[in-house]
Amino acid sequence: MTAAQYSRGQVVLADFPFTERPHERGPRQHFCLVIDTVESQEERLIAICYGTSRLDDDLLAAHGGGVLSIPRAFMKIRSGFMDEVVGHFVLDHVALVPESWLDPRFSARLDFMREEARKNDPIRERLFKAFVACEPVMQMAALQAALHTQETGRIGLPPGKTIRTKTTR
Length: 169
Description:
The protein has helices spanning 57-62, 115-118, 122-152, and strands at residues 10-14, 30-40, 43-52, 67-71, 75-79, 86-98, 107-110. It is an alpha+beta fold.
């Protein structure tokens, strides 16, 4: 069996950890955006950006508006299905999780990542530019998660991360 390849713009279904148990597999699956992969002592870890279908004022306020919203119509789903019409990815809410926390039955990719997909398509071009503008925030959050794992030996969410100010999911 070969290891799965994870790339820029890939969407996965993952057991994202909740704030109450930041180092444990989350009880519910969420569509997440892959940020990076990290090799750590014989195990590959995946930095994933939290995704939700629920965009509200509390989420936006808790993250300074740092949410990338991508309509499902602009995701190429290779396997599995996604009921949500839009995926909202919270840029600074990134966890470092083992590959086993990802559901292999779902695989998708943002369909505007390749230049030829954006050619003569202003909507895909705008979505790509939004992704590129958001990428540094996601990468910084992934770096924080990796440093936390390196320092503590614990995977998951770094300390102090919450999704909404009124709830922790």
